[in-house]
Amino acid sequence: MARLFHVPLSPFCRKVRLSLAEKKIEVELVEERYWEQDPDFMRRNPAGKVPVLRLDGIMMSESAAICEYIEETRPEPSLMPESPVERLEVRRLVSWFDDKFHAEVTSKLLYERVNKKVMKQGYPDSSNVKAGAKAIKYHLDYMAWLLDQRRWLAGDRMTLADFAAAAHLSSLDYISDVDWNRSETVKDWYAKIKSRPAFRALLADQVPGFPPPRHYNDLDF
Q1: pLDDT at res. 13
Q2: Per-residue pLDDT at 217
Q3: Which residues of 48-58 are buried (b: 16+ CB within 10 A; e: fewer)?
Q4: For a pLDDT cut of 70, what percent of the chain falls above it?
Q5: Which tens digit of pLDDT belongs to each residue from 59-96?
């Protein structure tokens, strides 16, 4: 069985978990306190980051590379379109969420509110929280613009781009930092992806000291 070293609210881990679940790959989840830099974990990934996946006898790191490997070795159901131009758009949006959205939103909301407390690194920086709360509005508006033209974020079918976005937004939704009333289009998109069987394990996550809001597990939120 595959084994994934992860942190429950990490959007990068969640993206990998969604990919594995969508392709019905059984995986053992091992929660890893990567910030403690345990020697065994550092041997698995000298970068000291999660996720780390053991699959096919290979220990692999970096969520984008992991998802590409899963897609190439388990192509069904496909999370990447066939056209090079469409694949380019998927990769662009995955990078958008994992780089730009993460830097401007996730790191300033989730990391300040949750990670600092868990890692015992002090109190949230209010200026970062304020900046993240402002930036997420821009990103939700951009998603709404994309979804006004497409059925899914990257085109007419669900792809890894949708999983990347949902991974970040679900982590933020756990701490009630997403204004779903800002866009009915985005809310409907999230409801569709949240109702998929691949999402069930994520909705069962519990972080000690941080109970999820009531709507988090509700498919008809």
Answers
A1: 98
A2: 84
A3: ebbbbbbbeee
A4: 100
A5: 999 999 999 999 999 999 999 999 999 999 999 999 99
Instruction: Give buried/exposed letters for 22-43 (b at 16+ CB in 10 A, else e).
Output: bbebebebeebebeeeeeebee
Q: Which of 219, 161, 159 is nearest to 192 (CA)?
A: 219
Alpha-carbon distance 172 to 59, whole Å? Answer: 29
What is the helix (H) or strand (E) element at residue 52, kind and residue range?
strand 52-55
| All residues at 6 or more sequence positions from 69 whose CB lies less than 8 Å from its CB, including other chains | 55, 60
Overall size of the chain counted in residues: 221
123 burial via Cβ count (<10 Å: 0-12, 13-18, 19+): exposed
Query: Could you give the angle at the alpha carbon of 126 between the alpha carbons of 125 and 131, nearest 5°?
Result: 105
Q: Are 74 and 27 in contact (CB under 8 A)?
A: no
Residue 219 scores a pLDDT above 80: no
| Alpha carbon separation from 194 to 23, 28, 33, 197 (Å, rounded) | 16, 22, 27, 8
Cα 195 to chain centroid distance, Å, stands at 16
Question: For residue 27, what pLDDT band results from cuts at 50, 70 and 90?
Answer: very high
Tokens coding 219: 């498919």
Is the pLDDT score of 221 beyond 70? no
Instruction: For residues 131 and 206, give the distance between their C-alpha atoms in angstroms, rounded to a whole number.
Output: 27
Q: What is the rounded CA–CA span in Å between residue 149 and residue 128?
A: 32
